């Protein structure tokens, strides 16, 4: 069981926010932001409305497209973490700016997507401004330019169903995110855990209105490891929470496919490799 842990709560409107934000990312790979501009009530509506969608027969009309990777991923189609054989115990809907979405759910989802992308671009700008000259010089283009006109940024509506009693499964096995940055509004239940550099697993407390931001592997690759992508998971709930669903809404900020991350990878090559490793293509 993971120990309790308190990420520093960083106010988005504080004068020193940019420096504190980057310091937290450098130390933990994660940052916890309060007073941010995302609409928490809209997030709560999305959780409520999409919970009903997942419970309906409407999901069948949006079964995931293996080529486009948009739409509904059932428990049987869910990804597995790199190095794991069993699929995560979750169902989810992947939404892109060009992708499918139930019309009755589109307004809130598109509004959140746009607001989160705008905030992500701002946060990426703070990171870019903080980079040492030696790291910036190694980038093939400025960080902010990597996401301009990107069609790969994706919003995932995640539902972790109740876990059957006595079934030892990971809701999300230990993994690192693929992208540049992930923006995760407060979920509607506990479960997020991250791994500290000493290997210890710690539970990230559930704070209403909190926004968790973490580094993805593509940002680690582009900065030659200067910004670390931290391993995290959604742990199996304790017995008292096994029968409780959990909703979350991560936005994965991606570069364009043609962006050269390093001498080893373009963004397209990196994404294709990881999707193969996750068992979704």
Describe this structure in words.
The protein has 281 residues and is of the alpha+beta class. It has a single domain (3-277), classed as B-lactam Antibiotic, Isopenicillin N Synthase, Chain (Jelly Rolls, Sandwich). Helices cover 29% and strands 20% of the residues. The protein has helices at 17-28, 40-54, 103-130, 133-138, 143-146, 217-222, 267-277, and strands at 3-4, 9-11, 30-34, 71-73, 91-95, 154-160, 172-175, 181-185, 192-195, 201-203, 211-215, 232-234, 246-248, 251-253. Strands 2, 3, 4, 5, 6, 8, 11, 13 and 14 form a nine-stranded mixed sheet that branches. The protein has a five-stranded mixed sheet with strand order 1-10-9-12-7, with no helix packed on it. α1 packs across α3 and α2 (40-54) crosses α3.
- Outline the biggest β-sheet: 9 strands, mixed
Low confidence ranges: none
The pLDDT mean sits at 91
Question: In sequence order, what are the helices and strands, one letter per element?
Answer: EEHEHEEHHHEEEEEEHEEEH
Strand proportion: 15-25%
Portion of residues in helices?
Answer: 25-40%
Number of strands: 14
Counting H and I runs of at least 4 residues, what is the number of helices?
Answer: 7
The assigned CATH architecture is Sandwich
- Structural class, by secondary structure, is alpha+beta
CATH superfamily: B-lactam Antibiotic, Isopenicillin N Synthase, Chain
Q: Calculate Rg over CA atoms.
A: 18 Å
Q: What do we call the CATH topology?
A: Jelly Rolls
């Amino acid at each position: 069981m993971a120990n309790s842990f308190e990420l520093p709560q960083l106010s988005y409107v504080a004068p020193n926010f940019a420096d504190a934000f980057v310091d937290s990312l450098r130390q933990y790979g994660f940052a916890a932001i309060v007073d941010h501009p995302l609409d928490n009530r809209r997030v709560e509506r999305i959780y409520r409305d999409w919970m009903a969608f997942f419970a309906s027969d409407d999901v069948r009309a949006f079964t995931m497209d293996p080529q486009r990777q948009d739409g509904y991923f059932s428990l049987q189609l869910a990804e597995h973490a790199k190095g794991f054989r069993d699929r995560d115990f979750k169902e989810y809907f992947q939404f892109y700016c060009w992708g499918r979405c139930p019309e009755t759910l589109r307004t809130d989802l598109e509004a959140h997507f746009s607001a989160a992308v705008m905030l992500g671009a701002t946060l990426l700008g703070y990171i870019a401004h903080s980079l040492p000259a030696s790291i910036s010089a190694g980038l093939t283009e400025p960080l902010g330019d990597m996401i301009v006109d990107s069609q790969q940024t994706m919003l995932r509506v995640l539902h972790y169903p109740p876990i059957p009693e006595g079934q030892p499964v990971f809701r999300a096995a230990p993994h690192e995110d693929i992208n540049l940055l992930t923006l995760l509004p407060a979920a509607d239940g506990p479960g997020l855990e991250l791994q500290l550099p000493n290997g210890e697993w710690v539970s990230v407390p559930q704070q209403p209105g909190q926004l968790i931001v973490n580094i993805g592997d593509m940002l680690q690759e582009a900065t030659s490891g200067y910004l670390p992508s931290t391993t995290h998971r959604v742990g199996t709930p304790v017995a008292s929470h096994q029968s409780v669903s959990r909703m979350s809404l991560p936005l994965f900020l991606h570069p364009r496919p043609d962006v050269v991350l390093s001498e080893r990878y373009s963004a397209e090559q990196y994404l294709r490799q990881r999707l193969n490793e996750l068992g979704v293509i």
